[in-house]
Amino acid sequence: MKIVALIPAAGMGKRMGAGINKQYLLLDGKPIVGQTISVFEAAPFIDDIYVITPEAEIPYCREEVLERYGFAKVRAVVPGGAERQHSVLNGLRAMDVADDDVVLIHDGVRPFITAAVLKHAAEVAAESDGALVAVPAKDTVKIVVDGISRETPPREQLWLAQTPQAFRYAVIRAAHEIAAAEGFLGTDDAMLVERLGKEVRIVMGDYRNIKITTPEDLILAEAFLNR
């Protein structure tokens, strides 16, 4: 059984307000997506890496990230789609894997993931329908309709989804192909598996495993590194 990483980094980063897409902003002197790939490159149990980026940026990604930092496990750079879900399906279709191989789908702008969490997620996914890395919600969450708080769900039942989300290849490929055929657009990969009646198990994540989306996130990421 192989363990393969699929790293979507095709977002346009409008909320960051920078001159380049957020995945190429520098963090400790290296593009954020390069920091993320480094974790997978260094993990001995990761066999292959596939990176998804906007088609127009593929040459830049190859030259300024993959070749510059010598990433040897990257097998392909795949062009992204209109939405993240379309990008992930492009990546799944481009993979050279077997049905029982495990795919770890991880945001390219979450550079603080640890090898220990990656391994745990892969192990759970190998024995189940899927694994979702998440952390318990710290804040009270409200359900709001028309600007009015209508309900307060029990906080102990609320978890904040992170990545990686891990699945055996046959499971996640089927979930994405069915969603595409039905025109369904979900908010994450686990949602596509859940809607088929399958069980996705929770793997405890890390509150530092942030997704760098806004300028404030970048400040927080730099603070993590400076510690």
Structure explained in plain terms:
With 227 residues, the protein is of the alpha/beta class. Helices cover 33% and strands 23% of the residues. The protein is built from seven helices and eleven strands. It has helices at residues 32-42, 58-67, 84-94, 115-126, 169-182, 189-194, 215-226; strands at residues 3-8, 26-27, 30-31, 48-53, 74-79, 102-105, 131-136, 143-145, 148-151, 159-168, 201-204. The strands form three sheets. The chain has a seven-stranded mixed sheet, with helices on both faces. Strand 8 and strand 9 form a beta hairpin. The longest helix is centred in the last third of the chain and has 14 residues, at 169-182. It is globular, with a radius of gyration of 17 Å. The protein starts with a strand and ends with a helix. The model has no long low-confidence stretch (mean pLDDT 95).
